[in-house]
User: Which sequence fits this backbone?
C-alpha cells in the first residue's frame, strides 16, 4: 500500500514529466481548464499565436483574438460539455493554416471533463500545394482542350484545299503531284498528332497519373483544405452523407471533379446568403454516385445542358473562366460515366456524377 509521501512524489514526477513535455514539444499546444482559464502552453504556441508568459491564468476569452477563429470559445465549451474530440482547419494571425484538434482533458476518477488540450498541426504547405496543383491541372487541361479545339478548323480547311487541288488541271505542272502529296502527308500527320493528343491526354500525359483505390472522405478533405479561405470567408455549411466511399480512379481527376462542384456551389450562392452544401455518395447499378446540392442562384431549365460547354458561364458577375463544369463533364464522360443537373432558379442546384465502379 502506497504512503501519502509516495503518492505526492509520484504526482511531482508526473508534473515534471508534463512540464518537460510542454517545454520541449515542437507542436503548438494549449491547456485550458473547465473554467476556461489558460493554464499552460508550449513554446511553439507562444511563437505562432504571440502568447506571453503573463497570459497564464487569464480567461481564454481575453486572448481569443490571437487565434483568428471566431467560434473557438464555443468549440471549447462544446468539447467540455460533450467529451467529444473536435477537429477543424483554422487560419492564425500569422496567416498560416493549422489542423486544430480540441481534445477533452478527462479526470477518470471523477468521470468528468476538466478542460481541453488544444493541438495545432501546421498544414500550410499542404494547402499551398493543393492550391498549386488545382491551378496547374486546370491550366494544363484548358491548354490541351484549346489546342485540340482550335486546330480542328485549319485541318478541315486544309483537307478541303487538297480536294480542290486534286480537281485542278495538271497540264504544265510537273511538280504538282509531288506538292499535292506533300500537303496530303502533312495533313495526315497533323491529324495523327491531334488524334494522339485527344486519345492520350487523359492517360499518358507527362504526369503519368494512374488509377488507384481512393477513399472519397480523403478527397473531400483535400478539397476542403484547398478551398479553406473561401469556406471560412463565406461561413459555408457543408453536410456529408457518404454511404459509399471507395473507387478506383485517378486521384487528381476525382479531386478536380469535387473541387469544381464545391467551388461553384460557393461561388454561385448570393453574397447575402450563407452557402449550404450537401454532399452525398452511394453505389447504384455499378456506379459510384456523387451528388452536390447547393442553395445558390440555380440554373434555368433551358440553360441546364449548356452549363457543361466550355467558356459558358451562368452568372457573368461571378469570377471564373467557364471551364470548370466543362472539365468535370469531360473527365466523367471519358471515364464512361455521366453528369446530370437538376436546378430551379433562386433555389439552388443538384449536380450528380456517375462514376463506373470496377472490380
Assistant:
Amino acid at each position: 500500500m502506497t504512503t501519502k509521501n509516495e503518492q505526492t512524489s509520484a504526482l511531482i514526477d508526473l508534473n515534471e514529466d508534463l512540464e518537460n513535455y510542454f517545454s520541449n514539444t515542437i507542436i503548438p499546444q494549449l491547456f485550458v481548464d473547465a473554467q476556461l482559464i489558460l493554464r499552460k502552453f508550449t513554446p511553439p504556441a507562444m511563437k505562432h499565436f504571440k502568447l506571453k508568459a503573463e497570459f497564464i491564468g487569464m480567461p481564454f476569452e481575453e486572448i481569443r483574438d490571437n487565434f483568428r477563429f471566431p467560434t473557438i470559445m464555443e468549440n471549447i465549451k462544446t468539447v467540455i460539455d460533450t467529451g467529444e474530440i473536435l477537429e477543424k482547419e483554422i487560419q492564425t494571425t500569422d496567416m498560416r493554416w493549422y489542423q486544430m484538434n480540441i481534445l477533452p482533458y478527462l479526470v477518470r476518477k471523477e468521470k468528468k471533463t476538466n478542460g481541453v488540450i488544444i493541438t495545432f498541426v501546421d498544414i500550410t504547405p499542404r494547402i499551398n500545394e493543393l492550391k498549386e496543383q488545382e491551378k496547374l491541372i486546370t491550366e494544363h487541361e484548358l491548354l490541351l482542350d484549346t489546342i485540340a479545339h482550335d486546330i480542328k478548323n485549319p485541318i478541315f480547311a486544309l483537307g478541303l484545299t487538297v480536294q480542290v487541288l486534286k480537281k485542278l488541271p495538271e497540264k504544265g505542272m510537273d511538280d504538282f503531284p509531288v506538292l499535292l502529296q506533300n500537303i496530303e502527308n502533312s495533313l495526315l500527320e497533323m491529324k495523327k498528332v491531334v488524334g494522339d493528343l485527344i486519345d492520350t491526354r487523359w492517360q499518358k500525359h507527362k504526369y503519368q497519373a494512374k488509377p488507384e483505390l481512393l477513399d472519397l472522405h480523403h478527397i473531400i478533405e483535400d478539397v476542403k483544405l484547398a478551398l479553406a479561405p473561401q469556406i471560412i470567408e463565406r461561413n459555408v455549411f457543408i453536410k456529408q452523407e457518404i454511404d459509399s466511399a471507395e473507387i478506383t480512379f485517378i486521384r487528381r481527376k476525382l479531386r478536380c471533379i469535387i473541387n469544381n462542384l464545391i467551388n461553384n456551389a460557393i461561388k454561385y450562392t448570393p453574397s447575402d446568403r450563407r452557402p449550404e452544401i450537401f454532399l452525398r455518395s452511394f453505389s447504384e447499378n455499378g456506379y459510384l454516385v456523387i451528388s452536390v446540392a447547393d442553395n445558390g442562384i440555380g440554373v434555368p431549365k433551358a440553360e441546364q445542358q449548356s452549363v457543361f460547354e466550355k467558356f459558358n458561364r451562368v452568372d457573368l458577375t461571378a469570377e471564373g473562366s467557364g471551364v470548370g463544369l466543362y472539365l468535370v463533364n469531360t473527365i466523367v464522360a471519358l471515364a464512361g460515366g455521366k453528369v446530370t443537373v437538376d436546378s430551379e432558379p433562386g433555389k439552388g442546384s443538384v449536380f450528380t456524377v456517375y462514376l463506373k465502379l470496377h472490380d
